[in-house]
Amino acid sequence: MAERIYNFIDLFAGCGGLSEGFYKQGFNALAHVEINHFACETLKTRMRYYGYSTADNAVMEQDITAKDIVKKIEKVVGNQVVDIIIGGPPCQSFSPLGKAKDDNNMQEDPRNYLFENYVKVLNHFKPKFFVFENMKTFGFSINNDAFEKNSWYFRNALVRANYNNLQKGIHSTTKFLEMFFSNLLLDTHYELKNRYMHIDYVENDSQSAKNEPPKCQLGTLKCTLEELAVLDLIKTNPSVKQTELAEQTGKSVRSIKRIIDSLKEKQYIRRVDGKRYGKWEVLI
Predict the structure, then answer these.
(1) Of residues 96, 139, 82, 145, the one with CA closest to residue 115
(2) What 8-state DSSP symbol labels residue 206?
(3) Does an H or E element contain 74, and which?
(4) β-bridge partners, 87
(5) Which of the residues are catalytic?
(6) Pick from 165, 177, 212, 264: most CB atoms within 10 A?
(7) What pTM value is reported for the model?
């Protein structure tokens, strides 16, 4: 039986640095989304080099923030399966060098929120896996340990996130993926057992309590990844000072103050027992 070729979409494609590796490994490109005209011309050249006849259609010179961007990508993809989504949202507004060049420390740069458009496309197509560049610049400290330890769990969680069998009453669920990423990003300790994902598995009360999706999941909180990173540090150490938060996230104290004010305004945190000697209380 012939080995299956997996399809990918490239967001924030640039001139194709990230997708080049996927081309070399035999993956099939369905679409590249990029706003810069000259980068798009380079992408078309690379597609033709690899033997594609679809370059003019597959390279989408589009603004990813457009409201109808998902529909436009769907039109290009057609009925083909999207197995993988890759992309690296612009990092200038998160990098120390970019902040140093801007008088306002990049606080008003619209690129701060472009990752949300990546998530929008991701949620729609629900690929088997995705590659997201620049995660560490958002203040998360992560490595591959969770993937190495729970590789089969992660694979099966992706299946459960996409598998439906209406005749048997089975519906896709992201619950197991949410617990995996909560452990990865927020240092929670949910039990990641493959047997919990079996369609015939029956949970008892104690197991159900251990495996409820985290309240602080990315999809339910209206906050940026910067705010989520600070929220996690506060949750870990309620006595943490703003200077310590700045040091741990690599951001300025002024940036931390802005993030704190935003979290308080959203009623996610509050200060108790005074400003000088008090602590933070997480309200979610």
Answers:
(1) 139
(2) H
(3) helix 69-77
(4) 11, 132
(5) 91
(6) 177
(7) 0.53
Q: Is the dihedral of CA 134, 137, 140, 142 positive or negative?
A: positive
* Both structure tokens of 81: 């399966």
Residue 221 has φ and ψ, to the nearest 5°, of: -95, 135
Q: At a CB cut-off of 8 Å and minimum separation 6, what does 68 contact?
A: none
Can you read off the two tokens belonging to residue 29?
Answer: 């490109």
Return the minimum-mean-pLDDT range out of 11-15, 16-20, 52-56, 250-254. Answer: 250-254
Q: Exposure of 196 by Cβ count < 10 A (0-12 exposed, 13-18 middle, 19+ buried)?
A: buried
Cross-sheet strand order for the sheet of 28-34: 59-61, 28-34, 7-11, 84-87, 129-132
Whose tokens are 């300025």? That residue is: 252
Residue with tokens 């990546």: 118
21-32 pLDDT per residue, tens: 999 999 999 999
Cα–Cα nearest to 224, from 243, 247, 242, 251: 251
Return d(Cα 284, Cα 282) in angstroms, integer: 6
